[in-house]
Design goal:
Number of helices: 1
Number of strands: 6
Strand order of the largest sheet: 1-2-3-4
Number of domains: 1
Order of helices and strands: EEEEEEH
Helix content: 10-25%
Distance between the termini: 37 Å
Largest sheet: 4 strands, antiparallel
Strand content: 35-45%
Structural class: alpha+beta
Radius of gyration: 14 Å
Length: about 90
Amino acid sequence: MNEEIKVIEIRFINGDTPLKAFVGVQIGDWTILDWRIVQKPGQRAWVSTPQISWIDADKQKKYKSLISVPAELKQKIDLKILSAWEEEKSRNAK
């Protein structure tokens, strides 16, 4: 798949939480919303695919990805998302 990958929106999350932003991405004709940028204290930021969460019978929060992406494409998407996020952060810091 050699489709162009474009970040179309970044919604920053305020507050002291590992979840830093939700990101919308366009891949060719497809638009996939709610990719997540996560960064725990002292760690590098990483990208999570769109997901759902629920509380199970044991009162534990569970997560499930809504899409499966081939590893090579996921790497390209991650790079594009993290680059756009860093650029937007530095632009907002000025």
